[in-house]
Amino acid sequence: MLKKSKWTKVREFVFKRPIPTTSAWSRTDMHVLFPDLYAPKEQVTTMMAGRVVPPTSRIENNRQIYIASQSVGLYSMHFLSRTPTVAIGFGNGKFNVHDLNTTKRCHTGQSSPDNMPVTCLRDYVDSDVHRIVSGTADGWVKSFSFDLEDGIKEVSSINLDNPIYSLDTSENYHICALDNRQIKVLDAVRAEYVRDVGRISTEEYSEEEEVGHQQRVTCVKFRPGNRYQCISAGWDRSVYLWDIRMEPDKAAVRAIKGPKICGDGLDIHGDTLLSASFSTENALQMWDLGSGDLIQSIRYRENENEAEYLYSCRFVDSNRVVAGGSGSRDAKIINIKTGVIEGVFFDVKPIHSVGYKDGVVAAGGVSCYIHVGDFNKVI
Questions:
Q1: Is the pTM of the predicted complex or chain greater than 0.85?
Q2: pLDDT per residue as tens digits for the range 149-162
Q3: DSSP code of residue 42
Q4: Hey, which residues does 197 pair with through a beta bridge?
Q5: Rounded to the nearest 5°, which phi and psi values hold at 9?
Q6: How far apart are CA 320 and CA 160, in angstroms?
Q7: By C-alpha distance, which of 170, 187, 175 is closest to 224?
Q8: Number of CB atoms found within 10 A of residue 288's CB
């Protein structure tokens, strides 16, 4: 039997099913291995399988962005800051920018020269130039200039020789979480390596000298308003707060034990951390970044016999959060003060990514549609 490559393991992790080692990987294999991605589908609706939208829901003007089968599914999604648009990363190495109001595609960018998945997308403004940054499963970090009229143009690129599971940007730096547990800081302007954050065992360091995560890191995020502090989390049920100015073995400012993060499952509002864990219950939690203490667990499941298993979360405002996952295959806006579900997107397959910006909420995953709606905060 053939030995599985690291790319096969990446796909197994994302698709949650084994890939046979008896055949070489190619795009034509997808039709056999993942027929559901290519089979004709009915349009996904917000009311299906007997599930009824609660009367407390205030999501209006539901609309959907269609994901073509040749794109090989959604891997990442990010609301862009300067325009009413969303960037969507696919399994074929490309990403699209869609208008949130019309859902139409505006532009397309190519992130991976070998058509590997676009695992993460972010944006920032550099000298009044809007830039989109992407990370891929074959290690590419690329920066693009973006304008609604002029389109997408590649500005810089660097290959880190390992699959990238997550990245984030500040005005000066990119931070990337790699397949080998390394967290690397890059110069955002020159696209050059700056330093590692934390320390893993290598030929130079033993396991006893490790600082940081013991298993795969799936999410990294800069602390808003602080370009030198970031958080990271992954499979080892640990969230680390880092200061990237410090030496790698001294950069860990704080460690929070508990959340098992398997996707884009961290967000920050002020000094409060929101985490979405891949666990049966108490998956959605809020933490105090100053002390590391748990503030509260937010009930996500509606029935006791349901599991939660969340992948992604975002703050809507100081009183509301949005999250989604594979347990109940939906995304919900929840009022953290009252526990009331104020919005919901139902799906037939797992939700991998959620987002919110300026009254617009979106959620997408394995299905062929991304749900988009307008959220009215005022009752």
A1: no
A2: 999 999 999 999 99
A3: P
A4: 183
A5: -65, -35
A6: 37
A7: 170
A8: 13
